[in-house]
Amino acid sequence: MKLIILGPPGSGKGTVAERLEQDFSFFHISAGELLRKEAITNTLQGKKIKALIDAGHLVPDEFIHDLIQKKIGNKRKYILDGFPRSVEQARMIEDFQVNKALYLAVPEDLIVERLSGRRVCAQGHHGYHIKYLPPKKAGICDIDGSALIQRKDDLPAVIKERFKVFHEQTAPVADYYQKKKMLIIIDGSGSPDEVYRLVRKVLQLETTNTFK
Ligand code: AP5
Ligand code: MG
Predict the structure, then answer these.
(1) Residue to mutate (ligand 1; options 35, 37, 193; most atoms within 8 A of CB)
(2) Of the ranges 105-109, 170-174, 203-207, which is most confident?
(3) Does the Cβ of 7 fall within 6 Å of ligand 1?
(4) In angstroms, rounded to a whole number, what is the distance separating the alpha carbons of residues 165 and 52?
(5) Distance 160 CA to ligand 1 centre (A)
(6) Contact (CB, 8 A) for 173 and 84
(7) What does DSSP assign to residue 184?
């Protein structure tokens, strides 16, 4: 199965994708994570990417498309988290033959609270929330033991800009998949466990893990 997870900044795309990866062995490809890795390379290109991310703007379509394609290789069971993020990017992956696009619908006021309490591990793959999804030991990633940090683009002014970019460029991607009858809208406003339960239900995935 090939999935796309869409939604506003901080709607929980990474959190859902991480769980599907752990429980059902999906290959989780986060566009933001790939770009943040590029941004820390001390090259002119890295610096340009960092400036775009820190300002809450999108990187060029071609660039992210090539990174994603390289990461997917010949995998057949994956989740695209944060890609496509413009109609142009969606057109670029017509030949990927994705099965479904999930859209996490969350009101903006909830999202601001989620983003301001978010912490991510220094390795960049695992996400937490100081109130809603705390690590077992404060400040330390449960999975890889690295320090938890706050993303620079989670500052209030940048969050505002990311929302603006989302409405202008990414919301039309949901319409694009709606027209193709691939879109499934999920209420993402509940707790992490509730949202995950809804996602599993629509994908008809069950787990033996009873607490989830
Ligand atoms: P990216 O990293 O993809 O950022 P984003 O889309 O803004 O989404 P986030 O990662 O902020 O949120 P999320 O939906 O994953 O939420 P999460 O699960 O962490 O992209 C960053 C930047 O890279 C972009 O701004 C752009 O510059 C660039 N970029 C990326 N993709 C690109 C593309 N395709 N083209 C061009 N440029 C691109 O959850 C958020 C918080 O809430 C966490 O603390 C979490 O623990 C908590 N939480 C999650 N679910 C719940 C819940 N149900 N209840 C309570 N708390 C919850
Ligand atoms: Mg994310």
Answers:
(1) 35
(2) 170-174
(3) yes
(4) 12
(5) 13
(6) yes
(7) E
What mean pLDDT is predicted for residues 150-168? 94
SS3 sequence of 55-102: HCCCCCHHHHHHHHHHHHCCCCCEEEECCCCCHHHHHHCHHHCCCEEE
- 115-132 pLDDT, tens digit per residue, is 999 999 988 789 999 999
Q: What is the pLDDT of residues 164-192, one digit of tens each?
A: 999 999 999 999 999 999 999 999 999 99
Round to whole Å and give the CA distance between 107 and 92.
29
CATH superfamily of 2-106+160-211: P-loop containing nucleotide triphosphate hydrolases (3.40.50.300)
- Is any ligand 1 atom within 6 A of the Cβ of residue 120? no
